Amino acid sequence: MEILSIGEKIKRSRIYKGITLKDLCEDKISMSKMSSIENNKIKPDEDILKFVAEKLDLRLEYLKQDVREQITTNMSSVGNYKGEELEQYLKFNLEHSTRYCYTDLSLKIIHRLFNYYLETGKYNEVETLIPNYYELYQENVDVEKVYYKDMAMYFFKAEEYLEAITYFDKLCKSADEYNLDDNNIGQNYLYESICYSNLSLFDKASYYINESLNNVEKITDNKIKGEIMTQYLCLELKTSNKFDEQIFRQACECLEEYKDILSESYLRIAKIFSDKGNNEKFNEFMNKSFEARGSSKSYEYANYLIRCLEVLISCGEINKAESISDETLNLAIYFNDVKLIDKAYYYKAQICGCKQEERQMEMYMNLSMDALMKFGTPKQRYKRYMEMGYMYYELQDLQESLKYFSLANRIKNKL
């Protein structure tokens, strides 16, 4: 796959066929003009293209298609690519759109690449893309809404909630200016509420979710509507120990077609019931979550099991966590996903720690550490180094403990 300008096509074909510039031009075109065309200094007119196409035995339509048209054609077929092929395809087209200063095309491509990285959790790649994205956004402020939403979702998924709030707040305050519909407004309030909730600022979290809930009838997207109701239920349960059965039923109805999100909703509610000491409700909603999700050999299911492990371990349900840990690890290895492998080994280590299987815990923590080093951000590495330091301190291996605390300290100074 390559993208060539009109001049590059002419020059490459001419050289390949052993034709000199003089032979190509004959007495029809000046050599200086043809040289300028080949070096992209001037654009040829239709008559010159017809003459050159005939002389070099090239299709006129091929010759006429400039770089912009090629990139546009490429992007129309982007849906045919997945995974790393999609990443390379987008980067290739972005490189050429940037090289030829097609800012509008570059913005569309970088938006797509940015979201691909978010969906696959490649946050290091996102960070390297942000300066370029910001520069392009500054050249075309008409895309402010798209840029703000992308940045908001990046910080949200990276768990940098204060930064995410800044962007969600800008979107909410400029809803009329950006012509946001009720679905988008409701979703922005929802995410802002979740951010505040994760920061334990529950008053603000309740304010924003109530803003969404008060206008929920205007929202036509059942997925967003169901998520808003779920967030409201979680906040009410967490802060007031209340659970509105009517809103719960409505949320379930809205999410009936979205089993993955429904199962995640049950999982969130189960965790809060456990925090409240209501083991009966915890088990009820954990079972609902498993039933709604169902078992499958899919990447999404592997991620779901990771989240289940996190909840089960945090709730002290070590035996239940252990019962799904091997399946989780097997799926992570099957998909050869380094992030899943990191989490699967990490939670295996936590389970072994709870069971006082110290050497097994040490082995799994080191395997997890090896995986994390392939993708982890400085903040993630710092946190893991600290955990490794404390683990070796508890194991009375002071040399290893000091090594990891020292590594953590070096990163801390750069954070």
Written overview of the protein:
The chain has 415 residues and is mainly α. The protein has 23 helices and no strands. It has helices at 6-16, 21-25, 31-38, 46-56, 60-64, 67-76, 83-99, 103-119, 123-139, 144-157, 161-173, 182-198, 202-214, 222-240, 245-254, 259-275, 279-293, 299-314, 318-335, 338-354, 358-372, 378-394, 398-412. The two termini are 40 Å apart.
Q: Any chance you could write out the topology, listing elements then pairs?
A:
Blueprint: H1 6-16, H2 21-25, H3 31-38, H4 46-56, H5 60-64, H6 67-76, H7 83-99, H8 103-119, H9 123-139, H10 144-157, H11 161-173, H12 182-198, H13 202-214, H14 222-240, H15 245-254, H16 259-275, H17 279-293, H18 299-314, H19 318-335, H20 338-354, H21 358-372, H22 378-394, H23 398-412
Helix pairs in contact: 6-7, 7-8, 8-9, 8-10, 10-11, 11-12, 12-13, 12-14, 13-14, 14-15, 14-16, 16-17, 16-18, 18-19, 18-20, 19-20, 20-21, 21-22, 22-23
Distance between the termini: 40 Å
Overall 3D form: globular
Alpha carbon gyration radius: 28 Å
The proportion of residues in beta strands is under 5%
Count up the helices: 23
Largest sheet: none
**Could you give the order of the helices and strands?**
HHHHHHHHHHHHHHHHHHHHHHH
Poorly predicted tracts of residues? none
Helical content stands at over 70%
Mean pLDDT: 93
Number of strands: 0
- The class by helix and strand makeup works out as mainly alpha
